[in-house]
Predict the 3D structure of the following.
Amino acid sequence: MTTPTLIATRKSPLALKQTEMVRARLAETLPQEEFANLELTTKVDERLNWSLEKRGGIGLFTKELEDALLDHRAELAIHSAKDMPTVSPAGLAIAGYLPRARVNDVLVHRNDCPIPKTIATSSPRRRAQLGILFPSAEWTTIRGNVGTRLRKIAEGECEASLLAAAGLDRLEIESYPGSNFIELPVHQVVPAPGQAAIAVQCRSEDLAKYENLFCAQTQLAVTFEKGFLQRLGSGCQIPVGAYYKAGLFRVFHPEVGHQEFKITLESMDQIEPELDAIMKELKL
């Protein structure tokens, strides 16, 4: 009997769905191999009273999965790309990304609060940009998976919150009783670098086996966005948005506001020179 290749994943419904999507891709590209989940709980999952902002945010959802790779308990790990540090730990690499989903943030508000006064989010990026649209709003936080947060909004813990459209789509959630969903356009709320991309991580020694199995276009865009974030020395707890698609790079930074750059990326070799030019123009 063949021993399956283990894939490290968190246990949330969204994480398991994303891992299922990766396994479907691997079944197409490596049909001779069997894969199984290694479901892990992270410290963030256990400590719902933690403030993600105060604890730095970036890497909090990935460490236990990366440890499983380094300890050889798993061969692959699945992450939401926006949660990942800009550089992988020594000995690990990004094998690739699935094709990117809808990148927008979605404002979910109670039906009786069309102009919410209390908005819950732990993301400085979302708070900074949505604060332009709702300048009188007060800010709070709610924790939990997608379903839990929707329930907390409906039960009145806050009047509104923000969720990633990609997560809602993957969980096939189009509505929730007592709530209204509003997709926010990317020119108003620029997504986080890597938002809506599913990252597949492996050990560096195994990179050659997996690196050509996934979406090159998504890898180019996410690498560019993460490169911009790295230039700023910032993690996901700094209010920075960065999104590249089809020749247009959108940026949000509190010092320069919303900016757009026309860039045609065709290869990885272009990334560093283009980032040099952008940083020079932004003077950040």
Observations:
- The radius of gyration is 19 Å.
- Residues 13-29 form the longest helix (17 residues).
- The chain has a mean pLDDT of 92.
- The first strand starts at residue 5 and ends at 10.
